[in-house]
Write a structure and sequence with these properties.
Layout: H1 2-18, H2 42-75, H3 91-120, E1 127-134, E2 137-142, E3 147-151, E4 173-176, E5 180-187, E6 192-196, E7 201-205, E8 211-216, E9 221-226, E10 239-245, H4 247-263
Parallel strand pairs: 1-5, 4-10
Antiparallel strand pairs: 1-2, 2-3, 5-8, 6-7, 9-10
Bound molecules: copper (II) ion.
The site of copper (II) ion has 6 residues, from loops.
Length: 273
């Protein structure tokens, strides 16, 4: 009876390890989430796969060391082994415990560098946007389309049904699906950080410096992130809300923004939908 229950718990834990995105939501965190948010970009898929792979190696090493410790405690304790051997060298063992860890590190390093290069290998941009962090909101610009607007968190009292608390913004960063979006990231005051977990994107926004990252969203919908560098009092209240839409919807949105921007030529923030 007890064994059966134990087996169930172990099976559950195993299943969770096997898929680190178990119980995780798409585009936003979920209560009792284990592991990462579900991947919506090729880079995040690679990050998740790499994480699962390294996790498997870590668990195997931890179990192996635990087994050795238990074996030593049981087999070589003072009662069972009153006369300890005086062995100090074993060439074969010493070579093994040097070479095997090196091989394990190489087995980790190769996919690790592959992922790193994939993250920094910028594809041809289909759309360029800039995200500027300020205390405490984001400003998004579409330099090729002359659009720019601020994105400010919606207060809890003003949320519409289905809108997540602390993550909903008044104006979303709208991008088309299956397109390479290059994001220039900068800041006006202190260091902020542009992060969207489901896209595998996280980059510091540093004043006086333009950095860039990229993502390719493969699913439509809302994807949320948060400023991920402590930036002052309202650090927790400057969400990044990305709305991924089809290309037609994106073009409609662009047209609407451009019409709105020309009406708003007084230099006020253009209205996003
Ligand atoms: Cu910030």
């Amino acid at each position: 009876m007890l064994d059966r229950r134990l087996m169930l718990v172990l099976a559950g834990a195993g299943a969770m390890l096997a898929s680190s995105s178990a119980l995780a939501g798409m585009g936003q965190p979920t209560p009792w989430q284990m592991g990462f948010q579900e991947a919506a970009s090729p880079i995040m898929e690679q990050i998740t796969a790499f994480h699962d792979y390294v996790n498997f190696i870590i668990v195997a090493i931890a179990l192996f060391v635990l087994a050795l410790l238990v074996y030593v405690m049981v087999r070589f304790n003072e009662k069972r082994n009153p006369e300890p051997s005086r062995t100090t060298h074993n060439t074969l063992l010493e070579i093994a415990w040097t070479v095997i860890p090196v091989l394990i590190l190489v087995a980790i390093a190769i996919p690790s560098f592959r992922l790193l290069f994939a993250q920094y290998d910028f594809p041809k941009a289909d759309l360029t946007v800039t995200a500027t962090g300020s205390q405490w909101f984001w400003t998004y610009e579409y330099p090729d389309h002359g659009i720019s607007f601020a994105s400010i968190m919606v207060q809890e009292a003003d949320l519409k049904p289905g809108q997540p608390r602390l993550l909903t913004a008044d104006h979303n960063l709208v991008v088309p699906v299956n397109k390479n979006v290059v994001v220039g990231v900068k800041a006006t005051d202190v260091i902020h950080d542009f992060a969207v977990p489901s896209f595998g994107v996280k980059l510091d926004a540093v004043p006086g410096r333009l950095q860039k990252t990229w993502f390719r969203a493969e699913k439509t919908g809302m994807f949320y992130g948060q400023c991920s560098e402590l930036c002052g009092r309202n650090h927790a209240f400057m969400p990044i809300a990305v709305e991924v839409v089809t290309e037609e919807e994106f073009n409609d949105w662009l047209a609407k923004q451009k019409a709105g921007a020309s009406l708003d030529a007084a230099g006020k923030v253009a209205t996003a939908h």
